[in-house]
Amino acid sequence: MRDAMLMRFGASSCHIPEDPDFYGRINFVAYSAVSIGFCSCGSEATVQFPETDFVRLQIGLRGFASTYSGGITTQIHPDCSCISSPNQIATLRFGRGYEQFLLRIERPALEQQISRILGFLPKGGSLQFEPAMRGDQPHARTLRQLVMFFAAQLQEHATTLPPLLIAELEQAIIIAFLYASRHSYSDLLRADSRDGAPAHVRRAEAFIEANWQQPITIEKLTTETGVSSRTLLRAFLRHRGYTPHTFLKRTRLNGARKMLESGVPGTSVTSVAFICGFGNPGHFAKDYRLAFGELPSDTLSRAKQRQ
C-alpha cells in the first residue's frame, strides 16, 4: 500500500506503523477529468500529498479519518466528507478500519464547467473550497449517489462502457460537485440555479411531484414539457446538477420516508417500496440507505416504538 500511495497516487510520504494484522485495498480508475477510487485501511496510516492541480473529495464509508489542509483539520466519517482544494498540501490520517470513496476532479474541468453554467469565468482569485461537506445536504446526497453509481458501473462494465457515457457521467459528477460544495463561486452558481431554471425544468419537477406514485417515463415528461428528452436532460444537468430520473427517485424516496415515519398499523417495508414505485425491495433498501443513512426497516421500527 505504501508503494501504491507513493508511486501511483503521487504521495510525498506515507507512514504505516508495523502491524501484523494490517491490510490495505485500493482500486482506482482515472479518466480525462474525473478519477474515482476506493480505499480501505486495516491499520492507522498517515499520508501526505504535495500541491496538485485537482480537487480531492474523500467520502467516508466506514470508520474515521481526518485531513489537514490549508490550516484546517476536517474530520471525515459517513456523515461528513472532506474537500482538499487545488494547490494545497494535504495530510491525510486514516483510522483503523477506515474505508472511503475518493473522487478527484481536474481544476481546468471545474473552471470550464463554471464558465459554461454562468456564461463567463469570474476573474480574481483562485478556485478554493470549504473543506467540510455535510452528508445530509440534498446536493451532497445526490453527489454521493452519482459517485457510487459510477463506481458500480465501472466495477461491472469497466471495459465496455461507451466513451460518450463516461463523458456524460463525468460531466454530471462535476456539476453535482459544484452545487454540493461551498467554493469561491458558489453564490454565483446558486443564484443562477433554481430562480434561473427554464420553465420546462420547473414544469417537469411539478409534474413529478404531483404524479410520483404513477409510472413516469421520459416520454411523459417530454409530452408534459414540450421539449425533447435531450433538451430536458441537459437543462436538468445545467440548472439542477442531476437528471430528471434522479429527481423522481429522490421524490419517491422522500414519500417512502414519510410513509415509514407515520408508523400506520400494517405498514411494511415491502408494501411501501411497491407503493412508491420501487419494484425491487432490495434495491429500494439500498437506495434508501444511501439517501438517509439508515435502512427503511430502521425508520419503520423507530416509528412503531414511538406509538
From TrEMBL:
Q: Which Pfam families match?
A: AraC_binding_2, HTH_18
Protein name listed in UniProt: AraC family transcriptional regulator
Organism listed in the record: Rhodopseudomonas faecalis
> Which InterPro entries does its entry note?
AraC-bd_2, AraC_XylS_family_regulators, Homeodomain-like_sf, HTH_AraC, HTH_AraC-typ_CS
Q: Cross-referenced PROSITE patterns, in alphabetical order? A: HTH_ARAC_FAMILY_1, HTH_ARAC_FAMILY_2
Q: Which UniProt keywords apply?
A: DNA-binding, Transcription, Transcription regulation
SUPFAM superfamilies according to UniProt? Homeodomain-like (SSF46689)
Q: Which residues form the HTH araC/xylS-type domain?
A: 202-302
Signal peptide from the UniProt entry: none
- Gene Ontology molecular function: DNA-binding transcription factor activity; sequence-specific DNA binding
